[in-house]
Design brief:
Number of domains: 2
Helix content: 25-40%
Structural class: alpha/beta
Distance between the termini: 36 Å
Largest sheet: 8 strands, parallel
Order of helices and strands: EEEHHHHHHEEHEHEHEHEHEHHEHEEEEE
Number of helices: 14
CATH superfamily of the largest domain: Enolase-like C-terminal domain
Radius of gyration: 20 Å
Strand content: 15-25%
Shape: globular
Number of strands: 16
CATH topology of the largest domain: TIM Barrel
CATH architecture of the largest domain: Alpha-Beta Barrel
Length: about 375
């Protein structure tokens, strides 16, 4: 008996290692390359879908090797199922390894959805709701010296990007962060600043930095996850005492996390990353956040155009995302893919994508 065209015939898993122009530094360390995983789902009618896993051990301990092994082992549980059961397949996949499979689940669900949308000839942004085809992203200045920060800000402005994200909370301390921020202000005096601590500051450090920022006349647009992910009381106090908006990133992965954040008044914005727990979980988090009156941000790990375009389809399709941080393709020294969103300055467009996420393997 022949299979239905939408039946999954098999999956292929390979490592996706992409060098960076310069190391990507955050409060918790430095990443010299994107050490990711590529998943290809094949349907009975020959349709293929691609997905990317970009693990970040700081979230849940997940590594490239773990993601690779989990996805390789999933083949037998996936083959023979219908692509339209993508969400059930993703849930079943997550039940085996548990919470350490966030990026692996994202890769599998992305590949499943890409194959389904290509099979149906539907762009992924339309599958997610069709609210829009465009987003404005920031670009990041990673940890480093004040001179590097000044040069980075000038380059970002030359690219035509309006919003600048700055990694803070590194080992050099508050004084070094302020030197970097003053240098950025000199190079880009009118740029909205998102200050991302990646959970690396203490309460005392956060208070010191707020005081220094106010003394320097620097008012950030957003304080993103300055404090440890479980310090919701401290996050709430930071928002009150600074008077600036606070975003939760490492603190939020599940619907239950959204409820805790809302109840504690810990943040006004939640940063949704598909790599944290997969696409199905991200849909639930977005719905829960809206129900509790929290605003939305879309972000990513160190991902190629494949993962970032999927996130752009998610956010633009759902609509209502106030911030987007989808910039790591500009840090990569190679691009093994073709297609995906187009960029003009910080404006990302999905309008040319006609099926799936529109990203294919390059020549």
């Amino acid at each position: 008996m022949s299979s239905a065209p939408s039946t999954i015939k098999g999956i292929n898993v390979t490592r996706l290692d992409i060098p960076l122009h310069v190391p990507f530094g955050i409060a918790g360390g430095v990443q010299a390359a994107a050490n990711n995983v590529l998943v290809t789902v094949m349907l009975a009618d020959g349709t293929r879908g691609l997905g990317e896993a970009a693990p970040l051990p700081a979230y849940n301990g997940e590594t490239q090797q773990q993601a690779f092994d989990l996805l390789l082992a999933a083949n037998d549980r996936v083959v023979g199922r219908d692509i339209r059961a993508w969400r059930e397949i993703g849930t079943d996949f997550a039940m085996h390894p548990g919470p350490t499979c966030g990026s692996a689940r994202c890769a599998l669900e992305t590949a499943l959805l890409d194959a389904m949308c290509r099979h149906d000839r539907v762009p992924m942004w339309k599958f997610f709701g069709g609210a829009g085809t465009g987003l404005e992203t920031d670009m990041t200045i990673t940890t480093g010296t004040a001179g590097e920060a000044r040069a980075g800000a000038a380059e970002i402005r030359q690219r035509g990007i309006r919003v600048i994200k700055v990694k803070i909370g590194g080992a050099e301390g508050i004084a070094a962060d302020m030197a970097r921020l003053r240098a950025i202000r000199e190079a880009a005096p009118d740029a909205p600043l998102i200050l991302d601590g990646n959970a690396g500051l203490t309460r005392d450090g956060a208070t010191e930095l707020v005081t220094a920022l106010k003394a320097a006349g620097i008012a950030p647009a957003l304080l993103e996850q300055w404090l440890p992910k479980d310090d919701l009381a401290g996050m709430s106090a930071l928002a009150r005492e600074s008077g600036w908006a606070v975003a939760a990133d490492e603190s939020v992965r599940t619907v239950e996390d959204v409820a805790r954040i809302a109840d504690a008044g810990a943040a006004q914005i939640v940063n949704i990353k598909l790599m944290k727990a997969g696409i199905g979980a991200a849909l639930d988090v977005a719905q829960a956040a809206r129900a509790r009156g929290l605003e939305l941000m879309i972000g990513g790990n160190v991902e190629s155009i494949l993962g970032l375009t999927t996130s752009a389809c998610f956010a633009a399709g759902l609509g209502g995302f106030r911030y987007a941080d989808l910039d790591t393709q500009w840090f990569m020294a190679a691009n093994p893919f073709a297609g995906g969103f187009s960029a003009r300055g910080g404006m990302l467009s999905l309008a040319a994508i006609t099926a799936g996420h529109g990203v294919d393997l390059g020549a």
